[in-house]
Amino acid sequence: MSDRRRSQLAHEYLTTLRECAAGGGERSLAHAYELGRIACGSGIGLVELATMHGVALREILGTRAPPPALEQCLVEAIAPFEMTHRGFHEAIERMDATERELEAFSYSVSHDLRAPLRTISAFTQAIAEDLADRLDDKSRDHLRRVLAAAAHMSDLIDALLELSQINRAPLGRHHVDLSALAAAALDELMRREITRTIERVIAPNMVVEADARLVRILLDNLLENAVKFTAKQPAARIEVGCEQQGGELVFYVRDNGVGFDMKHAERLFKPFQRLHGERELAGTGIGLATVRRIVDRHGGRVWGEGAVSRGATFYFTLPSR
Fold this sequence. Notes:
By secondary structure, the chain is α+β, with helices and mostly antiparallel strands. It is built from eight helices and seven strands. The protein has helices at about 5-20, 25-40, 45-60, 70-130, 135-165, 180-190, 210-230, 285-295, and strands at about 175, 200, 205-210, 235-245, 250-255, 300-305, 310-315. The protein is elongated. It starts with a helix and ends in a 5-residue tail after the last strand. Mean pLDDT is about 85; it is low at about 275-280.
């Protein structure tokens, strides 16, 4: 709101108080409420509105104590702020309840899918083994595709369960050696990549106050992506570090892999949003959504920066409180 409009609002408020002092009654109170509604919708805060009220009172009364009728004007003026605040909290409560219901639904559905999926996999494998000498190449390829799809669905179920469980367990806060966790996570990933050589750089002495289990899941997802997206890079490099940004300690995982187009950056942390095709790079599309959920639980921020064929860096913060 412009300074001119603020001055106008302050003048109207003073006029309303004068009307109230002269016996304006309900009409004055209704006007005060309307001015409060305008203030609430125009970016004027409670403190500024209360200041307007105080200035108007001093102009009308000087040092005399205000009568209840004038104080009621302020009560009416701040009513829209109280209603907005109450509505905001009610919306938050509804959103939290919906999120809990969705998590419970996801958890239940994921569990229910496991049994039929195991049956599909087991019987498909049995057919492949029992009829191995009677199947032609095309039929064997069909069965291979069924088993591969079942394995991918199993990975999706595991990822969904992990995502749904992020908010279910209490959040612990302890000193966590992020450097050691990153090294352990990379060691485990490299045991699956025995044919590759990746330069690894991990900053020492990175310690946070956070939930160690969730931080390990966060690092597993970010580092697994880094390993996957550097698969075609002959001199792959993955770096885990931290830096000060605007007085805030920011951690990052950086790679020199395929990168991504920044115009799609808003999709990165949404479930099932993939910027690379399944045939190019396998995955569930849930990893970064899990990372975001973990960072959100710690009250932090997460974002990514990258360029096509020039690598990517994922930043995150884990505030102590």
